[in-house]
Amino acid sequence: MTGTTGTLVLAGTPIGDVADAPPRLAAELETADIVAAEDTRRLRRLTQALGVHTTGRVVSYFEGNESARTPELVEALAGGARVLLVTDAGMPSVSDPGYRLVAAAVEQDVRVTAVPGPSAVLTALALSALPVDRFCFEGFLPRKAGERLGRLREVAGERRTMVFFEAPHRLDDTLAAMAEVFGTDRRAAVCRELTKTYEEVKRGPLGELATWAAEGVRGEITVVVEGAAESGPEELDAEELVRRVRVREEAGERRKEAIAAVAADAGLPKREVFDAVVAAKNAARTGA
Questions:
Q1: What is the pTM of this model?
Q2: d(Cα 162, Cα 172) in Å, to the nearest integer?
Q3: Average pLDDT of 250-272?
Q4: Whether the Cβ atoms of residue 183 and residue 153 lie closer than 8 Å to each other
Q5: Which helix (H) or strand (E) holds 259?
Q6: Using the 8-state DSSP alphabet, how is residue 97 labeled?
Q7: Is 256 helix (H, G, I), strand (E, B) or coil?
Q8: pLDDT bucket at 61, cuts 50 / 70 / 90
Q9: Tens of pLDDT along 157-187?
Q10: Angle between helical axes of 99-107 and 66-78 (0-180°, round to 10)
Q11: Among residues 51, 111, 179, 280, which one has the fewest Cβ atoms lying within 10 Å of its Cβ?
Q12: Which of 147, 184, 192 is nearest to 166 (CA)?
């Protein structure tokens, strides 16, 4: 592809306080040929607050039309357009639309750049008072209880600090599930309405936070959870190994994968866990 191609610009937008908008955002909004916005009404409120006027074409780009609109935007980029992508809050692609467009643009050798901006992930992490030297972002957990428990069990042994997004009406169930899987004493922080008027950071053990959230919590929520403690291989008897495999199977994992995961968590050879499962199965069959 020739040098006549355009540029895709991913721009961070405020997660609460409009004064946090990066300085370059205003210039990009005014000069972009196309502004692709997750919500065009929110974009209008943002431009009004910033005192800027978009001169380019404004189109919607959200989860429902992301697949269909991506080819149209890539075609415009191939023709030399400067396309600005903004979401409702934070950086595009981080639990928001954007990944498909970036991947498609890169595939066509289109230049992709960014206007760095506010991030709920990093803001919550910094405010959590939990270790920040190593962390991972897990996004939104599944809505269904069984799938949510299964996902949490997958990361139960994660050593890094974990960051999650959650809807306010599901926060109590999520914290209760975390307390069940990670333990009631695991430290965590619930960050609510970051940078907004009613910003609140509630820190404490998961058990206490689950009780607090049961009364109802409002606003945009980011949850930060301490990673698993560093320790040597666990001393587990055969009965506990079998129980852990069964829990993973009930969550939807195949037996082979469950055995491998349990062995890895316990620091044991897969053969030892496999033998324990087979022995338990034979004992159940014979009634021993």
A1: 0.76
A2: 18
A3: 86
A4: no
A5: helix 255-266
A6: T
A7: helix
A8: very high
A9: 899 999 999 999 999 999 999 999 999 999 9
A10: 40
A11: 51
A12: 192
